[in-house]
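Lab meeting, item 3. Inverse folding demo.
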């Protein structure tokens, strides 16, 4: 018998299996359910080859599971979730909290063993390390109550209780948060789980929803899980967010996540399976485009970046239509654009990054980042929406400040290199927008001279920043993908030659984003690089663990879709001819 395209491993035939089978049938994906005793499951998996294995549950020991799945991978099978093989402890709440607490900017809940219970302030949550649906979770009001727990006190982990008015479940599929459900406990119950009588509601507050999605994407990336349910909780008094746990076999049917949100989870999972089945059959850029555009409704912070670059690069009518729905990304929600620009100036924040050599340089140019944002919006208003808002930008920024910025940013090569794109972008924005107001034609020879210095002293100026220095000069000269470059071509080609030298000599220190942008810059000039084939191949191979968008294995959050949209649209652009006919 031929191997199926999808094998679902489960202990039992549940409603979730039925929904997955129905969704798979709708897409003509041949599917088998692998169930039964350990010996029966082993035999069935050993008969699989070149298919997707979706593991929900099974009777195999962790060691046997690893053995069987490793052999299946060798026969061309792809596993969902891979972490069950790569990180066997992923289901343990002990491990989950330890791993999350290693991450900066993501707070887990203080978790201890029974021996350290006295270090916690009561009330305390006691929970079994591996459990689901709220089972094995107890609220202790004193240390003495631990003696009343079923089994041994050492069977449990103990956590600080977070005062709350509910917790949050985010359902993740291949890096995409499908939605946010808030679960609220019934009266007299400390567990918010729906299985314990809690009620669910859709989170509609935009800020709350966005924060939950971004945190959940970080969690799924940390654990390398393609399909999971991420549970978060928010302190009712401080508003602080905490990671609770991640569920590798999330439930969604009946009155669960799907019933609350209306999202067809099984269909989204099977969409993912279908995409994986076709990855090897179509160009990777096609798979990347499909996955982003099929899920962009769940990624609102990504949408403008994706559609604007696609439109500017290809003049795609569909992208333009989507951009019409995203006008507020440029024009804001204020009554007029000048008020929007003024709000950007007024609310610009100081960078929270650690001090570096560029910190004192940035301090010399107050509001530089805010001004760059206003100028970018001004250019997009013109190139995307055919609207001239230069007068509003000039009124808010001030012509004198703009002229001073234009002059001062070019004076010192050292500062220019340290600022990199924070200087290059404003210079070209000013040149592209205000040449009729005051003389501001940029001579790229100034940039070539500076970059030559940077390449000699690459340790000071960082390979990544040097490559972006060159690529953003070419992007700037093209009016951000809107106009062919007809002047100073030799200088721009020289900039790319210097960038190529940096990539060749310091490739490990140049992120995939910058290397792909290097290829995009070549597309703009109509030139090519000897590195093109290797860069595109490295990108196409860097899709783990999700398989449907370009990750960067050298970055801790390289597979986080909220941090990957720049890299992925650049990959599509680098793989696609530039339509520069305007």
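The presenter then showed the designed sequence:
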């Amino acid at each position: 018998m031929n191997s199926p395209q999808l094998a679902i491993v489960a202990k039992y035939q549940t409603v979730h299996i039925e929904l997955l089978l129905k969704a798979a049938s709708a897409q003509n994906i041949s599917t088998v359910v692998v169930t039964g005793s350990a010996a029966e499951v082993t035999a069935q998996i050993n008969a699989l080859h070149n298919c997707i294995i979706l593991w929900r549950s099974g009777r195999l020991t962790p060691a046997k599971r690893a053995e069987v799945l490793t052999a299946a991978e060798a026969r061309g099978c792809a596993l969902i979730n891979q972490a069950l093989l790569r990180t066997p402890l992923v289901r343990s709440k002990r491990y989950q909290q330890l791993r999350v607490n290693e991450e900066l900017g993501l707070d887990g809940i203080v978790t201890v063993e029974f021996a350290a219970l006295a270090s916690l302030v009561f009330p305390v949550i006691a929970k079994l390390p591996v459990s689901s649906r709220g089972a094995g979770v107890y609220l202790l009001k004193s240390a003495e109550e631990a003696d009343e727990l079923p089994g041994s006190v050492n069977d449990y982990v103990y956590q600080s209780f977070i005062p709350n008015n509910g917790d949050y479940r985010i359902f993740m599929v291949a890096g995409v948060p499908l939605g946010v459900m808030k679960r609220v406990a019934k009266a007299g119950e400390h567990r918010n789980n729906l299985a314990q009588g809690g009620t669910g509601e859709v989170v509609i507050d935009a800020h709350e929803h966005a924060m939950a999605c971004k945190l959940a994407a970080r969690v799924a990336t940390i654990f390398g899980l393609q399909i999971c349910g991420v549970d978060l909780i928010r302190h009712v008094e401080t508003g602080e967010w905490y990671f609770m746990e991640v569920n590798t076999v999330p439930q969604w049917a009946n009155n669960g996540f799907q019933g609350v949100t209306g999202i067809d989870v099984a269909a989204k999972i099977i969409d993912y399976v279908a995409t994986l089945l076709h990855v090897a059959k179509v160009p990777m850029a096609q798979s990347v485009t499909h996955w982003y555009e099929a899920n962009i409704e769940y990624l609102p912070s990504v949408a403008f970046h994706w559609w604007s670059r696609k439109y500017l690069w290809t003049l795609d009518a569909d992208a333009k239509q989507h951009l019409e729905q995203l006008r507020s990304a440029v024009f804001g929600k204020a009554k007029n654009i000048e008020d929007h620009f003024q709000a950007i100036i007024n609310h610009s924040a100081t960078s929270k990054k650690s001090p570096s050599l560029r910190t004192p340089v940035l301090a010399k140019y107050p509001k530089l980042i805010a001004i760059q944002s206003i100028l970018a919006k001004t250019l997009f208003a013109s190139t995307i929406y055919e609207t001239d808002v230069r007068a509003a930008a000039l009124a808010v920024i001030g012509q004198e400040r703009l002229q001073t910025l234009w002059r001062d940013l070019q004076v010192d090569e050292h500062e220019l290199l340290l600022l990199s794109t924070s200087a290059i972008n404003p210079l070209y924005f000013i040149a592209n927008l205000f040449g009729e107001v005051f003389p501001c034609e940029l001579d790229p020879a100034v940039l070539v001279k500076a970059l030559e210095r940077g390449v000699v002293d690459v340790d000071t100026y960082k390979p990544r920043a040097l490559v972006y220095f060159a690529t953003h000069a070419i992007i700037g000269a093209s009016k951000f993908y809107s106009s062919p470059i007809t002047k100073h071509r030799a200088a721009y080609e020289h900039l790319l030659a210097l960038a190529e030298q940096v990539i060749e000599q310091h490739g490990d220190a140049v992120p995939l984003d910058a290397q792909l942008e290097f290829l995009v810059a070549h597309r703009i000039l109509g030139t090519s690089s000897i590195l093109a084939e290797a860069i595109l191949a490295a990108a196409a191979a860097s899709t783990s663990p999700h398989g449907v968008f370009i990750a960067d294995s050298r970055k801790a959050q390289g597979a986080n879709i909220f941090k990957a949209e720049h890299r992925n649209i650049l990959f599509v652009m680098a793989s696609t001819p530039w339509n520069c006919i305007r």
